[in-house]
Amino acid sequence: MTSSASSKPAGRGRVADSPRIHALLGPTNTGKTHRAIERMLEFERGAIGLPLRLLAREVYDRISARVGEQAVALITGEEKRISARARYYVCTVEAMPRDLDVDFLAIDEIQLVANPERGHVFTERLLHWRGRTETWFLGSDTIESLVREHLDRPEIGRLPRLSRLTHAGRHSLRTLPRRSAVVTFGVQQVYELADLLRVRRGGAAVVLGALSPRVRNAQVALFQSGEVDFIVATDAIGMGLNLDIDHVALAADVKFDGFETRQLEDVELAQIVGRAGRYLRDGSFGTLAPLPELGPRTVDRLQSHHFAAQRFAYYRNADLDFTSLETLAVTLARKPVHPSLRPAPEADDIRTLRALAARTDVAALATDPQRIQTLWDVCRIPNYEKRMPEHQAERLLPVLTQLAQHGQLDRDYVDSQLRRLERYDGDIHVLTDRLAAVRTWTYVSHQSGWLEDPAGWQGRSRELEDRLSDLLHERLLERFVRTRAPSGGPRSSLRPDPHHAFAKLADLDSYVDPERNDAHAREAWVERVVSADFASFKLDAGGAIGFDGVRLGKLTPGQSLLRPLLKAALPEWLHPGARSRIERRLQAHVQDLVVHLLEPLVLDDGRPALRGLAYQLEQGLGTALRREVALLLHALGPDDRAVLARQQIEVGRYAVFARDMLDARRSIARVALAAVWERGRAADGRSTIDTAPLDAPAWPIPRGLARDLCPLAGYLPLQRWAVRCDVLERLLRLPALQARVRTHAAAEELRALLGGSLEEMRALANELPRPRARRSRRRKPRRQPAVGEA
């Protein structure tokens, strides 16, 4: 394979014995990848580059079943399985080794040359990479003109779609057909829709790029097995995942592509809706309300698979000069000479390089070509955690320093980084972030020569990733899957939210000491309590703290809302030493409780407006009324709002709130702290907030409940109703609630989402804020003075 970075693009004057170049083009569900695999297996040695790690693993398993695992290698950024007898190489496109010498080479989804983030990688493969005998490029029909322009006498093959794709119009969640995939863009939008499907239709699987392949496989299996009838995904679902989907519903048609928020092009929509139908089974597509129906021209293109040809590909020079930092920057910025090649937008690796090169200590390290190449290799560590370039550079600086000075990473340093991640508490977002950090170290462990005993580190990081993945899958099941919604007429009360169900802890009197005379059993129980991790202790809405379902203490009012005290209630048979140890452990747990609760509010930024907003959110346990922080919001700039978005802090119409503080565990902690604070300021020492029906997304405010306590629990008080912050934002977007006069349809729409009776939903609909009337631009005529007025 011609893989040298200095190779010239294939021209039009090649000799007759040049390798065959074949372009197999067509829409989704045409069997292109299948044909390429079958063709590769006809050769003695071959390689195929795929756009996703998940798809690479699927193809690896498929080929291994045919020819044996020893004959197949799997190479991705985070995983390398290469046996000495490997003949076929299954890789992600970015991870394909340059030194492969194979008879057959295939690159899948070659139309990604026009992708702003990854396009330059696919372009480089298109221009320079070849098999010794045969090379295949697989992709959309839209790439044909570019293929003819840049390749030497390519053989073009076209495949028709195996099944028919029809337009099914717009659906609501109520009418969405079973075996549907709902596609949107952004993690929070995926979780919102999955939440709605859980409440309304029994549950949904989720697929998005932030999940590890192990989690995505488990979620896909959940859908494939029929345990759930719906899957909510980002556009990652359009890259070759083979699912039994009958219908694709678009819930959004705009996305942030890494550089800007833009409308999706028809060819991108085709890649997504093409997942509907599989092999010879027909599929359908449409939109999900409130997104309007697709336009007639778009529908016609999606059904006929006719799209405008791609006119350009993104390019970045791969022939780099490591003589100095300046020459590296110059060669990276070298512009293409061909008119159909555009300079690629700055990717994460170049932005990280700029941030590191600006540091004097890095400039002092970059003294020779070998160290400069090491710097570039470090900058190319994928930014799985989606950090700002400055933060990514800060994270990678110790890695660069150790590699430049010692040639390898310090064992103790890597051990400390993995130990920091070996925690199994936290909600979906926390576990997802932790998995992203682990993937970084999995990638590092697979870089040649960076670590002593790389196999040992690979095994450790893989085991940690698997454990976190399994735990994340469980969290997703807990949040987005429940038993199917009961059929029948309307319910007389609001539907509880199982994700926010508050369990009560048993009293100490229920504790049974079955081994009353067994000192060893008692000591073992004490050791279990003292050494238990954070997640092993449970908290109920009243502030009781328990272990193994038994209450061992209770929060009591302290100096402030965030500084409660602990009153222990331990078994009488404990000797003083054991009692003291458990009390210290419980005190430490109370401190951890507050730290864990406020973790989503830790903003890595020193700007005054953000610090002020974070403080207000802390004092409100994750919620701040918008009118009370209006000045702070006005002072926020675009970068500040980007920080809020990364932290899942939403600026709603009536409140600013942290979405990550609305999960079950943090919701219980918020209510417990609010209840303890309320007891401290009440004359009778009683609490009312923990008696409210806090396992429902909305509820009538009980008599005697102080309205200012509702935001502490994550709810906004209306007149007689309280609605959870995220649910209120969702309700205000419902089409039937956009009218200023609420009709029967509004109550029906609320009942479909929340449950409850029509009377309850009418009352709630009447209390929800009305859309503001638009002011007329015309000036009012001046009143003419009446007779007798001056």
Task: Describe the secondary-structure layout.
Layout: E1 20-25, H1 32-40, E2 46-50, H2 53-67, E3 72-75, E4 80-81, E5 88-92, E6 104-107, H3 119-128, E7 134-139, H4 144-150, E8 155-158, E9 165-171, E10 180-183, H5 187-201, E11 205-207, H6 213-224, E12 230-233, E13 247-250, E14 254-256, E15 261-263, H7 266-273, E16 283-288, H8 296-304, E17 313-315, H9 325-332, E18 341-343, H10 348-357, H11 360-365, H12 369-379, H13 389-406, H14 411-421, H15 428-445, H16 454-480, H17 519-531, E19 537-539, E20 544-547, E21 550-556, E22 565-568, H18 576-598, H19 608-619, E23 623-625, H20 630-635, H21 638-646, E24 649-651, E25 655-658, H22 664-681, E26 698-700, E27 715-717, E28 721-724, H23 725-731, H24 744-754, H25 758-767
Parallel strand pairs: 1-7, 1-8, 2-5, 2-6, 3-5, 6-7, 9-16, 10-12, 10-13, 11-12, 13-16, 17-18
Antiparallel strand pairs: 3-4, 14-15, 19-20, 20-21, 21-22, 23-25, 24-25, 26-28, 27-28
Helix pairs in contact: 6-16, 10-13, 12-13, 14-15, 15-16, 17-18, 24-25
